[in-house]
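Data deposition worksheet. Section B asks for the primary sequence of the deposited chain exactly as it was used as input, without tags or linkers unless they were present during the calculation. Section C holds the resulting structure in token form. Section D is free text for depositor observations; keep each observation to a single sentence. Incomplete worksheets are returned to the depositor.
Section A, Depositor: J.P.
Section B:
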Amino acid sequence: MATDSSAIAISGASHEGGRQVQQSTSLDQLLHRGQTHYTAGQFVEAINVWSMAQEHLSQNAFLNRVVVLSNLALAYRQLGNWEKAQTAIDQGFQIISPADSLDSEGLRIYGQLLNTQGSLLFAQGDANNALNTWEQAAQAYTQANYSEGLIKSLINQTQALRSLGFFRDSQNRLRQAQEILAKLDSLPLKSALMRSLGETQRLVGDLDAAQKSLAESLKIAKALPAPGELAITQLSLGNTLQTLAHQHELFVGRTDNSEMQALVDDFYQRAENIYWEISDTAPLSIQIQAQISHLEMAIRHRDWSTARSLKASLLPQLGRLSPGRTKTFIHMRLAQLLLNQCMASCPKDLQHTSQQIYDLLATAQQQAHQLQDPIAESYALGYLGRLYETQKHYSDAIRFTEAALERANHQPTLVYQWEWQLGRIDNQLQRSPESILLHYERAFQHVQEVRKDLRYVGPDVQFYFRDRIEPLYREYIGLLLPKETADIQGDPAQLIRAQTVIDDLRVAELESFLACGLLEPNDNIQRATIQEIANTHKAAIIYPIILPDGPNAERLEVLVQRPTDTSAALERYPSANASISLSPGRQETNEPLTINIEDTLKQFYQAVDSSRASLVVTSTHTQDPEQFQSLATQIYDWLIRPAEQAGWFDDSIDTLIFVLDGAFRRIPMAALYDQETQQFLIEKYAIATTFGNLEIPKAPPEEDFRVLAAGLSYPSVLPSTSVNSNELTENNQPSERPFSSLVYVEQELIAIKEIIKDTDIFLNLEFKKEDFQTQIASSLYNVVHLATHGIFGFTRDETFLLVSADEASVQSDQGVAASIIEPIKVEKIDLNDFDSFLRPRKPTPLELLVLSACQTATGDNREVLGIAGLAIQSGARSTLASLWNIEDASTSLLMEEFYRALLNPDVSKAKALQKAQVSLIQKGRQPNVWAPYILVGDWR
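Section C:
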């Protein structure tokens, strides 16, 4: 939501014939009443009062008329009445413009009108025009010397820039706002704006900065006699800490990381302390919102004692709330919490009955109806439909959901939920497939609009995507690929639609990871989709997708697009719907058991990377070769064998492109094993990976390579100022983070220069951020090879590479081991840096980006999105990276073979990587040494 969406106070004077005329006291009271109604969420009452005030204002009181029109637009926007909101804005612009030679007060009000217009545009998904409008507002505020308005307009611009994919520019706007904030003298204003800044930083995903801003706001607020402002800041900081806890908790659930669990506990404890601190002197609505947040946290943390205490004190207070939208949404939020979380996990004495949840929602619906607030009423009716759906009272569920859809005012966030709900209900009632698919298709179309907003919702987008977006995609794909069908291939049109939805899911995942949209190319380069190019380059595309298959069950579907003489053929694997395998030790029973897909993939990952716990892989054998081979064969039989048996992968196919899903992302496909031919998959096919049907340049890759090869071989230490919130000491202070030496890096870079003469090397202290920026931004190089520590984390903030930040002079001495050199200071190059570094060289993208010493932080499948994130932000046609770091001379050998093969113009990048990996296999190296390398993007 845009900042400054609250109504503003009217000026005490108006202009009439060039002089000020005081407004009547009764008029001032009307305007104040309107503000009071607006703040309470009573938007219809606010509109009525402001409309009365508008009638009392003389035609010459143009500044005050503009203020009222701006306020009316905000109120209409809250009700979802875009037409009336825009009409009020248009009337305001008819009254005031820069051509009127406005004084500072006039410029301030003109800026407010522009700010409101920007908010309206942004709420309707027009981020480009919203950005332009907010920039005009900033100019007006600057001319008026009005710092508060300027800060708000800059904060708004950050959200628009983020939604458009300009992350670096977004961060720069935030920094400008911070610099202006630091100079303010008014402590109440500084506290409020610092809180606004922190909330925006939280929304755009910068949780560490959000913590700092909110903590600063809280520090100021504690010294002020304003308990209401203090409580609002406490609530915001507590919710930010809970977001951090939840974010890291998702990670813990996928990796069983005990250190991360301790951090989760710490975040929860700090959030809980803040919730308890919110005093009885705070506004009742803030107290109740804090208690609901605390209750949600207690339920998630299974702290039943605290949950019981909160529930006992919370429920009696609801009736004391003043009528308004805030009260309506508090009722709905509590009902949602009790329905979705407590019903599933709470002890019996904590669970509400369906009647109690119904009462909360019915009260909310009645309040919304009285307030004439169709958006709030749509939510309440839709949630009532959801309640009846869970109770299997489908006729009532349909009635309430259809009523919710009628009141949704075509808002995508609402429409997609209610269409999806109707689709689920129709599916439960076993209605016609056409009816079910129609609802899902409508929901899918509207969710594309919702994603425009999700792109800038930072860490919250992870939860929103996981809980409210991804399940829709998977359910829709499951319906397009029905399990029970006489013809396993099914309807060709539905196969194509399923492929489209899978591709869109992959892109949506990338956007949720990056917390911003994928930039549209702004050059004149002709592009084609991965699918189009694959069909003309002897490449097949494989789509494994894990789908829900009833309660607590899953199934694997695999689609494959293969080239034919005329066009691409899309096939569906006939064996993917069968029971995958009997569980070990259970063959004597008659139960139809299947192996859990996710567990199988996890076991294979652990088998191929037996030393993963230390994050260092050596060339030793895997701990259990038999288990590794069995699992590698199992996954091969899932993904590859059906196509080979069907004759789809004949001699015309030499490259496989994987569009990987979920836990498949962290699996090195090269290590899959064909038991019949006794070959690894990489020995049979070249392999590449892509994340959705993204477009790549039509033109073939360049054949002449100019390489920038840079790296760090010395041990290094990342100073505490660069450490994130998940790297704290026991006292919650950032700790320095050490990194070991990479002893083979120098050898690796020298080998590249011997193969490709046009190579410049920047090693250790020569590899600095500013110098690297200068070099990479030029068009001198079309290949960038980085052999440095790097982490692909589970968020964009945790994804970075290291460069030297040390000014000391360290003499290179090949006779001295790198391990005995004093650690050098390093700093991060993150995704934002890659975006800004490479933007000046557009439209000349990198041909190839190689990250030879990077690794996923812990092997979580979401972290692999970090590789794609770097590829996207760099703009490189192709990116070669490793799933984990290999402390072994094998890396140097593999890179030598890769670049040597790449010099042959008839060898694609994927074939060059295949030759390099096969060369290590032939030398007897184990899979954990050669398998983790993956090629992302253009494989040609």
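Section D:
The chain has a mean pLDDT of 84.
The first strand starts at residue 13 and ends at 16.
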